Amino acid sequence: MHPQHALNQQMDYVHPAPVRVWHWINASGFLFLILTGFQIRYAESINLMTLSHAINLHNYVGFVVIANYFLWLSYYLGSGKIKLYIPDLRRVVGLAIRQARYYGFDFFLGRPNPHTMTAENKFNALQQQAYLVIMLVLLPAQMISGLFLWKVKGYEEYINLLGGIKVIDTIHVLLFFFFTSFLFIHCYLATLGHTPLAHFKAMFTGYENHH
Predict the structure, then answer these.
(1) Which residues pair with 210 in a beta bridge?
(2) How far apart are CA 108 and CA 150, in angstroms?
(3) Mind listing the pLDDT tens digit for each residue in 61-117?
(4) Which of 9, 6, 33, 24 minimizes the C-alpha distance to 142?
(5) Angle of the 92-104 helix axis to the 125-133 helix axis, nearest 10
(6) Would you say 125 and 134 are in contact if contact means Cβ atoms under 8 Å apart?
(7) Which domain holds residue 39?
(8) Which CATH number fits the domain that encloses residue 99?
(9) Residue 9, SS3?
């Protein structure tokens, strides 16, 4: 390695082991839920597996993702790291505009990312807002609607209070398409490090390599 290149690098331990384990279990779970979800929704057009196998796998993986979510919640609340998801309301608008400009324009001109990821400041302003809504609103809504669809008779009273099975099914399907789209966007944005695989590697090693 060229000496000057070495001087321009900084290794920060940003992703602790519990976070990395949770992340990859969640990512794997999402992939299985998406594949089985498409099979269930479009059973007449897709033939990846039988419908009964798709439903069983979807249910089992769904419970794994739910358990994994509560591990995430316990870790972040217990360690106090949940504050990483809370944006600074005094600066969030300006920081969000700068970050959006970077993603949409500055990156393609080779300009530096306005946000430097550290263990204490892990997410940029756009990530904080997106992940806060996803982790505390949308993902719980998807899990709850999934539970209701898993045992319709057992949760019939709650389902009726929320408008009936069609409303619950619509919520679940719309969120299913949202999370499918989010997975593609998330993977794309993860390629915007100093190399396309830098952020992916960091989620295995825990270390972000800043240039």
Answers:
(1) 10
(2) 45
(3) 999 999 999 999 999 999 999 999 999 999 999 999 999 999 999 999 999 999 989
(4) 33
(5) 100
(6) no
(7) 10-210
(8) 1.20.950.20
(9) coil
